[in-house]
Design a protein that fits this description.
It is a single chain. By secondary structure, the chain is an alpha/beta fold. It folds into 5 domains: about 100 residues, 3-Layer(aba) Sandwich (GIY-YIG endonuclease); about 70 residues, no CATH class; about 200 residues, 3-Layer(aba) Sandwich (Rossmann fold); about 190 residues, Rossmann fold (3-Layer(aba) Sandwich), CATH 3.40.50.300; about 90 residues, Alpha-Beta Plaits. Helix content is about 30%, strand content about 20%. The strands form 7 sheets. It has a 7-stranded parallel sheet, sandwiched between helices. Strands 16-26-25-17-24-23 form a 6-stranded parallel sheet, sandwiched between helices. Helix 1 crosses helix 2 and helix 16 packs parallel to helix 17. The chain is globular and about 90 Å long. It starts with a strand and ends in a 6-residue tail after the last strand. It binds adenosine-5'-diphosphate and zinc ion (2 copies). One zinc ion binds next to loops. The site of adenosine-5'-diphosphate has 16 residues, from helix 7.
Length: about 750
């Protein structure tokens, strides 16, 4: 057996591993080796250095005679780097992809890309002095130093750079000059800290936990021990005060000198959560989000590693925070689809959280108002301890829910997207000065353009999905960015009756403006939140009651707490219901429940209006009644009939390439290999496909999928390993293979 080892103690060298032989009777077992620190002979003189084992392999691509043996493992406590590497190895083994893919998921890009600033030691106003200095350097034949000074002078005395090449010199020259007081070098990242973390307002009154919250906390406190901290599901209806329970659990864990990772599904929720948390834990929190630059993320990573913070709040990547004394991982809104990575390795944050917590002796708490079927199944199997909150905290009542049948609405002559009932209630709220949220299932749905004469739908030539209309008249592909002007007649039949179809946030905004002339309206969707701080600004405006109506997509319904909102309108609840996706009912249920949960959180009871074409569907009905347990039963039954997760496990094998014929041939070939890999156990295994992926072509790449379903996840991992090897063979040169375990929907 051989091991790939990186030299030294720094993880920025992951791209340059060296191969060593693992001697026989090595005291660490092969499975435990990835991540371990070892002594190795290095260089011509075989000086002994330390390194980390990245991965192990059977074959070695180099001359056997040139390979050296690992000397011995480094004894002592396992460091945080070791843990991260072994976590990466686990990701790779369990979800597919290469070790490099996995390491990149786990370890942020090293700060080298981060710009530094260099400036003259004595600016401002000392350019002329610098000129003199430069002349002096020239006389001394110190041309490199002269060059640096002249470059700086040319740039007004100050320059930000990422590479000393900017000055046609090396970093050591710059450091030398800084040491001599000629220039000043500043690491930009030292000053980087998301401004939001500076919030130190602590004025909020302490909330006393209610009885249910106390009970939940007791379950945690009574089960949490050093040796067995436990795994928990906090299932509490919207507004039941889950956050306060999280805070109390965090206090307990922090008091024991441990650290906390707090996962939230979306950037839009980060700010509100940080606001609330920083009132309790000011100065001890760090955060990560997808909008941060590599350098900003790296700075947070280093802070966590140095132990300068005890809490990290962030999306799924925060799971890999290099804490050395991890005590608790919270996964808030654990049912959210964004916890699944869409990049290889396609891990699920819930699963990794449980894995890491078990490995490092930490507790894990999943929280949701509509737990994923996966989590609830674990509760049923007693793998998670259940904590329940059944009432709204502070005594707020659940909203009254109306289901409006849109077909009937049309029959009575109302062609607007706002039903009569919803109109009535919005009008009422405007009069009372209360706020309304209008929720539209998804951006882009609206905008598709078709011809009313021949039916042609305008599609992206690269992606095979419909283009979306954007004002003032552009058609845009949301997958690849392809953009054309809106045609004035049908490119297929020449008819002028070509128009947008359906319902988008912009269109609803326009309509609501026309209908309610005095209403102040805010819109929140992917378009209005493109810039860095826009989420926060829009939400703050709404919270400060600077608007009456907030119109938006998914991102407005999750988790937010607006006490003055007393009406939520779900404009077309079932748009997600009949998509070709096994989780469609669950998603619809979640969305209705979450959206409803925004209404009536304060002292005034609220209303929810669900507009739908399918009022009889169980997901709509049960969500309207807030009946999670019935939904769970019904849906688990449906899933078990078709062997869908979580009843069964499902592996999607994705074949992709530029040539559709090659992809098809490769897929058939892999289907055969898959059948063989599954071997004798066929009775419990179902293989379907290959089929074209739901979006068959993205950015000119064609994709086909084979699905393998079985309860035996280990079998799926074995199938993956076999197919992964075949994928690297010559036969498959032009077709790539990717894997997705328990995919979030149709691939
Ligand atoms: P969830 O996360 O379960 O949806 P939150 O934690 O956001 O609920 O709490 C909903 C609201 O109830 C918040 O405004 C919160 O401040 C308030 N709240 C929570 N616990 C209590 C309590 N014990 N007493 C009074 N108000 C509470
Ligand atoms: Zn036409
Ligand atoms: Zn496209």
């Amino acid at each position: 057996m051989y091991a790939d080892v990186i030299i030294g103690s720094s993880l920025d060298k992951i791209d340059r591993p060296f191969t060593y032989r693992i001697p026989e009777n090595f005291p660490v077992s092969i499975n435990e080796l990835p991540g371990r620190e070892v002594y190795i002979p290095f260089g011509a003189s075989n000086r002994v250095v330390k390194g980390f084992v990245l991965s192990v392999k059977i074959k070695c691509e180099y001359d056997e005679a040139l390979i050296k043996d690992i000397i011995s493992p480094v004894e002592g406590a396992v460091g945080v780097e070791s843990r991260l590497i072994s976590m990466a190895y686990w990701l790779k083994s369990n979800y597919g992809g290469t070790m490099n893919d996995a390491l990149h998921a786990v370890i942020p890009a090293p700060k080298k890309v981060e710009p530094k600033i260099v400036h003259l030691a004595k600016i401002p106003g000392e350019i002329s002095e610098a000129e003199k200095l430069a002349d002096e350097m020239k006389q001394k034949h110190a041309y490199a130093k002269e060059r640096v000074l002249r470059t700086l002078i040319k740039n007004g005395g100050k320059l930000s750079f990422t590479n000393a090449g900017t000055f046609n010199t090396s970093m050591s020259v710059l450091r030398n000059m800084a040491g001599a007081g000629l220039i000043r070098l500043i690491d930009k990242e030292e000053f980087r800290d998301p401004s939001i973390l500076k919030n130190d307002e602590k004025s909020l009154p302490e909330i006393e936990l209610n009885d249910e919250q106390k009970e939940a906390l007791d379950i945690f406190n009574n089960n949490y021990t050093e040796s067995n901290p436990g795994k928990y599901m906090l299932y509490g209806i919207t507004g039941s005060g889950k956050t306060e329970v999280y805070i109390a659990m965090m206090e307990r864990v922090l008091a024991e000198g441990k650290q906390v990772i707090f996962l939230i599904p979306e950037i839009a929720l980060t700010f509100q959560m940080i606001d609330r948390l920083s009132r309790h834990f000011a100065g001890r929190i760090s955060m990560l989000n997808s909008r941060m630059s590599a350098g900003e993320r790296y700075a947070q990573y280093i802070k966590a590693k140095k132990g300068l913070v005890d809490i990290v709040v962030g999306p799924r990547s925060a799971l890999f925070t290099p804490f050395s004394k991890l005590g608790l991982i919270i996964v808030d809104e654990e049912h959210e689809g964004s916890y699944k990575s869409e990049k290889t390795p396609r891990y699920h944050a819930r699963e990794v959280a449980i894995y890491r917590a078990e490995k490092e002796g930490a507790a894990v708490v999943l929280g949701s108002a509509s737990p994923s079927l996966e989590a609830m199944k674990m509760v049923a199997e007693r793998k998670l301890k259940l904590m329940r909150l059944t009432k709204r905290a502070g005594g707020a009542l659940l909203p009254k829910v109306d289901i409006v049948d849109l077909r009937e609405e049309l029959r009575s002559g109302n062609r607007s997207v706002i039903s009569r009932r919803l109109y009535e209630l919005i009008d009422d709220r405007l009069k009372k000065g209360e706020q309304t949220i209008l929720f539209i299932n998804r951006r882009g749905y609206a905008g598709f353009v078709n011809c009313r004469s021949c039916g042609k739908v305008m599609k992206c030539p690269h992606c095979d999905i419909s283009l979306t209309f954007h004002r003032p008249g552009r058609l845009l592909c949301h997958y690849c960015g392809y953009e054309i002007p809106m045609p004035d007649k049908c490119p297929s039949c020449g008819s002028p009756y070509i128009a947008t179809f359906g319902l988008g946030t912009e269109k609803v905004e326009e309509l609501v403006k026309k209908t309610f002339l005095t209403a102040r309206i805010l819109r929140m969707d992917a378009d209005t939140t493109a810039s860095k701080d826009s989420h926060r600004k829009i939400l703050k405006k709404f919270k400060d009651r600077e608007a009456d109506i907030l119109i938006g997509t998914q991102m407005i319904v999750k988790g937010h707490d607006f006490p003055n909102v007393t009406l939520v309108g779900i404009l077309a609840a079932d748009l997600s219901l009949y998509t070709n996706d096994y989780r469609a009912a669950e998603r619809t249920f979640d969305l209705i429940l979450q959206a409803s949960g925004r209404a009536g959180r304060g002292n005034i009871p609220g209303n929810v209006v669900i507009q739908t074409y399918h009022p009889e569907h169980y997901a709509v009905q049960m969500a309207a009644n807030g009946d999670y347990l019935s939904f769970y039963k019904e849906e688990m039954h449906t899933r078990s009939l078709a062997m869908f997760p979580p009843v069964s496990h499902m592996l999607a094998i994705i074949l992709y390439g530029y040539d559709s014929k090659e992809v098809s041939e490769g897929a058939s070939f892999i289907r055969n290999k898959t059948e063989r890999a599954v071997g004798g156990s066929l009775a419990d295994v179902y293989i379907t496909g290959p089929v074209w992926a739901s979006i068959a072509k993205i950015k000119d790449i064609y994709r086909k999928v084979i699905y393998v379903r079985t309860k035996d996840r280990e079998l799926l991992v074995r199938v993956k390993n076999i197919i992964e090897k075949i994928g690297k063979d010559r036969e498959m040169k032009k077709v790539g293979v990717m894997f997705d375990f328990d995919p979030e929907g149709t691939v």
